[in-house]
Design brief:
single chain; mainly beta; four-stranded antiparallel beta sheet; 28 strands
Length: about 400
């Protein structure tokens, strides 16, 4: 009897051990699955658009390929669109305006520039298509809220998305925000404001002011005028090349200039909480658009131009004829030059991501001809990630640090 009890007790202990080990393995498996999923989601991903100009039977057109590059060096083609050169004439200089990399989707224009199309990163399928009443001129994305801002020839819109887990689909709602001619519209990180250029001067429809639209109050405020002092606006007026918010949604930075050939571009910053504006004309001169947020109190941009020796005082600019990455302090306007990049690499178009600072070796927003590379700077080490065969039109890291 005693032996039977011992045997039963032994079996019970073995069973308990088996159950314990089994449960531990399940827990370990779940932890591994979660970690693997997190690592997969946090892996390095870059979305980019490359363009090839073609001629067929006397018809000039451009082919745009939207791709996602992964740190495993795998690439996915997520869309292709053909646009007639006659349709995009006048937009060639800034084709980046027609594409935007969002939180879950990439947005782009259809062939006639009137259709707004969204493709899901995960499924690589089109999830939204809407024909706008007039031609689309600008699209931008907010990676925090998943929203898009669209400026057509006559109106400004906000496109919101919401994921429905039950049906495993996104629903979208498009709302008109304002009427008028706007450029470079950008939604603030907190989703409360839209900063953009506005062209409403009756004397000169090319003159551009910086305005902020309060979405809660449905109001608009001009932060930077299209005028410079008392100078005639037909000859001297503001042009805006990019708009960016600080991470705390307090400051707006723009790359801006007056008419000149070649353009002398600098950085200006507006504090929306105090209504204070700062024109950093001298020390941020020879800016190559765009300007982007680096931290709550700093913006990052490329400074310098190898071929720009036409006019101007360059005494406040370090290495004016080499393009390098620079941080602008909002508090005092001082500049901090980023080290770790060899002088034989010109650095354009900085993007701050989870894994470091990304940049290109050609052109930024400006057309730079075919072929360029995308690099990453991390811990003072530069790595070449992608060699783009066509003309790089747009790019962004799909995982941001805020």
């Amino acid at each position: 009897m005693k032996e039977k009890l011992n045997m039963c007790g032994s079996k019970s202990v073995k069973f308990n051990i088996f159950v314990y080990v089994f449960i531990c393995l399940i827990i370990i498996g779940m932890i591994f699955f979660v970690i693997n999923a997190l690592l997969k989601n946090a892996s390095e991903q870059i979305g980019y658009i490359e363009r090839f100009d073609k001629t067929e039977n006397g018809d000039f057109f451009a082919l745009f390929y939207g791709k996602i590059w992964y740190s495993s060096c795998k690439e996915d083609l997520i869309f292709k669109v053909k646009m007639s050169r006659n349709k995009i004439k006048g937009l060639d200089y800034f084709p980046v305006r027609l594409f935007a990399w969002g939180k879950n989707h990439v947005a782009y224009c259809g062939e006639d520039l009137k259709e707004l199309i969204l493709v899901d990163y995960t499924t690589k399928k089109e999830v939204y298509r809407n024909r706008m009443p007039e031609m689309i001129k600008y699209i931008s994305a907010n990676k925090q809220t998943g929203e898009f801002v669209i400026a057509t020839e006559k109106r400004l819109y906000l496109l919101k998305s919401e994921y429905v887990p039950k049906n495993k689909i996104y629903t979208f709602s498009l709302k008109q925000i304002a009427r008028g001619s706007f450029c470079w519209p950008v939604l603030s990180p907190n989703g409360k404001y839209i900063a953009c250029g506005e062209m409403d001067n009756k004397e000169n429809d090319a003159a551009t002011s910086l305005v902020v639209i309060d979405l809660n109050k449905n109001s608009k405020k001009k932060l930077l005028s299209e005028r410079f002092g008392d100078m005639p606006i037909n000859n001297v007026y503001r042009i805006i090349y990019s708009v960016a918010w600080s991470r705390d949604s307090r400051y707006v930075a723009i790359s801006t200039s007056t008419p000149a050939d070649p353009s002398y571009i600098w950085v200006s910053v507006a504090d929306i909480s105090k209504g204070k504006t700062m024109e950093f004309t001298k020390n941020t001169g020879l800016c190559s658009p765009p300007v982007n947020s680096f931290s709550e109190d700093k913006f990052i941009f490329s400074q310098g131009s190898p071929g720009y020796k036409e006019f101007g005082d360059y005494s406040n600019i370090k290495d004016p004829f080499r393009v390098k990455l620079v941080l602008l302090s909002i508090k005092n306007g001082s500049l901090e030059y980023i080290n770790g990049i060899k002088k034989n690499i010109n650095t354009y178009w900085p993007v701050v991501g989870l894994n470091g600072i990304y940049f290109t070796d050609k052109g930024g927003y400006f057309s730079s001809g075919e072929g360029c590379s995308i690099y990453k700077l991390k811990s003072k080490r530069v790595v070449q990630l992608i060699k783009v065969r066509g003309n790089l039109v747009s790019y962004d890291t799909l995982i941001r640090i805020y």
